[in-house]
Amino acid sequence: MRLGRGICLAAFAGMLSVAPASAQIDLPSMHADPSKYMLYRCPQLAQARPALVKRMQDLERLTAKAATSPGGAIVGRMTYRSEYLAMQGDLQNLDRRAAELNCPPAPATPPATRDMQNQDRPLHRDRRPR
After folding, report:
1. What is the pLDDT of residue 82?
2. Which phi-psi region, left, alpha or beta, contains residue 102 (left: φ > 0; alpha: ψ -120 to 50)?
């Protein structure tokens, strides 16, 4: 029994060592349905885009507001991160569909806040005096 468990553990460790450490996973595309905008035409895409951008901005604002309270960064991530990634994936799919249809370019979106874009940032903040 111990031998079988050891073999499984060694096999699992081997699989982990083979996987590249720097592999990038596209999280937004994992949270969004790629076929959501397949039946949309240019006017519908142009109408849907501002609503997505506005919702993403709302989520960024809510996450920033949550981060101001103790433990809020963790709560903000748990609460808003998956929806933000879904909106980001939807926006990518919408832009991809607009490019396929040669729609006029969409207005530029404002840059996202650091809290929502940087996944590797620690959840705590350095509270040392400056």
Report:
1. 87
2. left
